[in-house]
Every structure is written in structure tokens, then in C-alpha cells.
Write a structure and sequence with these properties.
six-stranded parallel sheet; 26% strand; binds nicotinamide-adenine-dinucleotide; nine-stranded mixed sheet; Rossmann fold; 17 strands; Dihydrodipicolinate Reductase, domain 2; 12 helices; disordered N terminus
Length: 362
């Protein structure tokens, strides 16, 4: 049950939303929510006052805070989006849910499956809309791939390959990682990072699992390459993994590889998924060239020549639109915290597999 009146009329112009954490990704949240007419972006909060004030000025946000507790107890809010670094998703998320506010949380939902499940339980008890920002769910091609697999258009899925390729450790297209806290915390377990596996592994495991199905076993190798003197820059010990390769078996028997790297020179930010079924194949590429609505197909006679054709897919909403629509319409939003927890379980198993050099059962 949701906290708010279900009447759309009462709700119009009344979703008072606050953004916690005003760093890089928060600008995407602010721009996306500002474009939704039912949202009133009323407050933002960051421990760095100047950053929060600049952010508020840029996005015309009236109230600025540097303390989450103060914000939650001072102003009226209906919903919050938590865009802080990974380690704060749990403690801040629990505070927000304690106030029974709808919550969109950045990914990964938490640092461990146990913590992610704690958030999902708390959200369910609070009776609010809860979503995790697995942002590649805005790909229309991904939804079409799922629809086609569910409709048995390629037959039983036998094999797949899923890659998430970044190269910000090798080139400065997004700035020099050595000089920016936003990149440095991602390289340090002391600062709550689970490395590339937690940061973007979460996306690629979701991207493959969403159309194909649940993971059953995983074997993973993590690698942390030396990249600074004594593997330390200032307060940051650079010990979090920056490349991984995993072999997986799915509950439906399909075998696949899932990998991600920050050393994938030649790519800035590209996700690729290829799915091979008994009777056909699907593939999609999500990158900055914005082909997010094109699904490539190899079906029928084209199987004889290995020939692919592109299919333009109908648009799907992004997570910001889904979150607001779920609040307005009194239904649950997708991907929800249970999905965030499910993927976190796969990430934990991948970690354990690397540590024990073993196949891990999910
Ligand atoms: N969904 C996506 O595609 C996507 C993309 C980028 C980042 N992210 C996620 O978004 C989150 C933030 O990433 P980012 O790149 O914006 O990081 P960032 O370091 O640029 O920004 C984080 C901000 O949170 C603030 N902060 C830290 N602790 C706080 C606290 N206790 N209370 C209030 N503010 C606090 C920091 O001062 C900083 O301004 C991460 O969890 C990251 O994984 C998601």
C-alpha cells in the first residue's frame, strides 16, 4: 500500500522531490526530473555545501542542506533520490524509508546482498515505491529482446556474451582520474567501492539477466592493475578491481560470459549483448552513438549466411519516468529493490568465486 492519495488530481504538481548527493550523476537526475511536469524539485543535500549550492542554482532548487537528517525533519517531501557514493546507499536509504518516502536509489543498491535485502525489506514495510537506477533499462532494444525471447522467437537460449567496456583509466575523456574524488572513490575498497564489478558489473549482469533469466552459477576472475606509486593517491588506497571476466550458467541452462573493464581502450562507455538461441540470434549495442532503440536480429534464412538486420523498437520510459508514474498510479516501479538485491547476490557470488577460485552457486 502506498502512502499517498491515489487521486491523480490531488497529486498533480505535488510530488515534492529531494536529491541527496549533488555530484556528477545527480545532474542527470535533476535534468530528468525537471522535465517531468508532476515533479517539484524542492531540495538538495550534499556534505559539500558549495557543491550543493552550485547545484541548486543550476537546477533552480529552493532548499539546500548539508545534513540528511536535518533535511528529512525540516521540510515536507514525498520522494527522494539518493545519488551518493555506494557506501551511503544503505544508511541514507534507511533514513528515507523510515520517513515513509518513495525512494529511487542509485546502483549498486548496497555493498552486499544482505544490506540490499535489508533495504528491500525496509521499503516493503514502509509501503512506498522503491526503485534502483539500473539506467540501461531505458533501452527499447533491451525490452524488445526480452519480448522476443519470452515469445519463443529465437527458441531456447543456448549461449550469450555480455560486455561493459570503459577506458577512463587509460585516457582522460572524462577528466584525469588521478585528480578527481569522484573517480578515486571508485578505485578504493576503504571508500566503499566494489570496483568495476560493483560499479558497472551491476549494469551488465542486469542487462543480460533481464531478457535471458536468472543466474544459477558463476565463476569470476577479478583483476586490479598497478596504476600509481605504492597503489595510493592521497587518502585513496587503489585496491578495488578494475577488470573482471565471469563465466555463468543460467537456470534455463544457457551458458554465457559477462565481463567489464575500465581498461577497454577503443571504447568510452559501451555495453554489448549477444544472445544466441536455437533458432536465431539477437544483439544490441548501447553506446554514446545512441542506438539504444535498435535491436539486431539474425533469423530464418539469414541464419544460413550469418546475416543480421536492424529493427527499430518502440520507445520505453526511463527510470525517472517510471518512478514518478509508479507513485502517481499507486503501483510498484521496476527495476525495484528486490531486483537490486537479486543482482547484488550475483555480484557477491562473483566476488566469492574470485576469492575461492571456485564456481559459486546462487
Ligand atoms: N545509474 C548510472 O548509470 C550511474 C552513473 C553514474 C553514477 N552512478 C551512481 O551514482 C552514485 C554517485 O555517483 P557520482 O558519480 O555522482 O559520484 P560523485 O562522487 O560525483 O558524487 C557523489 C556526491 O555525494 C556527496 N555525498 C557523499 N556523502 C554524502 C552524504 N552522506 N550526504 C550527502 N551527500 C553526500 C558527495 O559530496 C558528492 O558530491 C554512485 O552510487 C554511482 O554508482 C550511477
Amino acid at each position: 500500500m502506498l502512502r499517498f492519495p491515489t487521486s491523480k488530481k490531488t497529486f498533480m504538481d505535488q510530488i515534492k522531490l529531494a536529491i541527496i548527493g549533488t555530484g556528477g550523476m545527480a545532474h542527470t537526475h535533476a535534468s530528468a526530473f525537471s522535465a517531468i511536469k508532476e515533479v517539484n524539485l524542492v531540495a538538495c543535500c550534499d556534505v559539500v555545501r558549495e557543491r550543493a549550492e552550485d547545484f541548486a542554482a543550476k537546477h533552480s532548487i529552493p532548499f539546500v542542506f548539508t545534513d540528511v537528517d536535518e533535511m528529512l525533519s525540516t521540510i515536507e517531501l514525498h520522494a527522494v533520490t539518493n545519488v551518493t557514493p555506494d557506501r551511503f546507499h544503505l544508511p541514507i536509504g534507511l533514513k528515507v524509508l523510515d520517513k515513509k518516502l518513495h525512494l529511487l536509489s542509485e546502483k549498486p543498491l548496497a555493498e552486499t546482498f544482505q544490506d540490499a535485502r535489508m533495504l528491500a525489506d525496509a521499503a516493503e514495510q514502509a509501503g512506498v515505491v522503491h526503485m534502483v537506477n539500473l539506467s540501461y533499462r531505458r533501452s527499447a532494444a533491451l525490452y524488445e529482446a526480452k519480448r522476443m525471447i519470452d515469445a519463443d522467437k529465437i527458441g531456447r537460449v543456448m549461449h550469450f556474451e555480455a560486455d561493459y567496456l570503459q577506458s577512463w583509466l587509460a585516457q582522460p575523456a572524462w577528466g584525469d582520474w588521478r585528480e578527481n574524488d569522484a573517480w578515486l572513490w571508485r578505485l578504493s575498497t576503504d571508500h566503499g567501492s566494489k570496483g568495476v564489478l560493483g560499479d558497472i558489473g551491476v549494469h551488465i549482469f542486469d542487462l543480460a539477466g533481464f531478457p535471458i533469466g536468472a543466474y544459477e552459477t558463476v565463476q569470476c576472475v577479478l583483476k586490479t592493475f598497478p596504476k600509481a606509486e605504492n597503489d595510493q593517491i592521497g587518502a585513496y588506497r587503489l585496491d578495488a578491481n578494475d577488470s573482471f571476466t565471469a563465466m555463468v550458467e543460467m537456470e534455463n541452462g544457457a551458458l554465457g560470459t559477462v565481463q567489464a573493464s575500465r581498461w577497454a581502450t577503443g571504447y568510452i562507455n559501451t555495453l554489448r549483448l549477444q544472445i544466441h538461441g536455437e533458432h536465431g540470434a539477437l544483439r544490441l549495442t548501447l553506446d554514446e552513438k545512441d542506438r539504444w532503440d535498435v535491436l539486431e536480429l539474425c533469423l530464418g534464412d539469414n541464419l544460413l549466411k550469418g546475416k543480421w538486420r536492424g529493427k527499430k523498437c518502440p520507445p520505453v520510459p526511463d527510470n525517472y519516468q517510471r518512478f514518478i508514474s509508479a507513485i502517481l498510479n499507486g503501483h510498484l516501479g521496476e527495476p525495484d529493490f528486490w531486483r537490486g538485491a537479486e543482482i547484488q547476490k550475483v555480484l557477491d557470488a562473483a566476488y566469492m568465486s574470485d576469492y575461492k577460485q571456485s564456481w559459486e552457486q546462487l
